[in-house]
Amino acid sequence: MSKVTMIGCGAWGMALACHLSRSGHDVTVWCHSEEAAEKLAEERKMEAAFPGIQFPERIVFTHDAELAARERDLIVFSVASSFTRSTAKRFAPFIREGQKVVTVTKGIENETFKLQTEIIESEIPGIKCAALSGPTHAEEVIRDMPTAIVAAAADRETAEFVQDIFISPFFRVYTSPDVRGVELGGSLKNVIALAAGMADGMGFGDNCKAALMTRGIHEIAGTAVKLGADVRTLTGLSGIGDLIVTCGSVHSRNHRCGELIGRGMTPREAVQEVGQVVEGFYCAKAAAGLSKKFGTSMPITEEVNRVLFEGRDPKAAVTELMLRGRKMEADIPEEKLPEGWR
Question: Is 189 assigned a catalytic role?
Fold first, then answer.
């Protein structure tokens, strides 16, 4: 079995650490503070996130970055996206050249528009980096509920290495060469989930949410393809699959945050009420920046930004989306249009 380090002790990181430990791997979890490491080592639970779940005794908890990175087969980054760069800098002196690394974080850096693998590779040159993403709630993974996910890397050997470590009878892992598509799908869907939550919070019903999700994947795919992704990736687990689970699940922090905003809370109040990282809140500006930079149409993302950062009323945002100029649903090339449509 493999030696794996989980960098980050949040709910998602701990769910994966438990999954890997139960699969027989030697798992070390690096925590952001000595206090957090000591508490987890002693109590072996996170009652707020996982009621009634005890973490395996085999998992080692530490705050020592050098110890956590030493002689590992795989290092997993599972910190909030806003801390990926600083954490990678912290670990860079201790990670050897050629080390296999996988990020399970979803997000885009605001200033640079870099994805998680790009941030890690820029801070730790010479590694082999992959992304693991898909429709995966920590609350279900930690209970061994059937889950499917995608491991994407620039080279097949790295993707299959990650696949082999994570796969189990309850956790099916597919591989993909489309790192950009997998990461963009996993990041941008969080913004659409905020919109879906707002619609639910305002009581707008299933028709509205279905429209937001469908048009949401349309704008996600349009932007991702413009950035070099394969459109087939966005029809898969890390695109439509992740969008469905994030827009419709009681476990979704992004949906919950949007729902609270739809019910009348300010965005900041909603984030505080959720009490955990709401990645869509931090990704929204970067998504709008990508749209502007590459000239793609992302009207839902633009309206979410106005609600989050410009004080726009969510109902006014919905009205704006509904009254946009008339257009065809799909951008069909003129040569493929029937004669009466040209």
Answer: yes
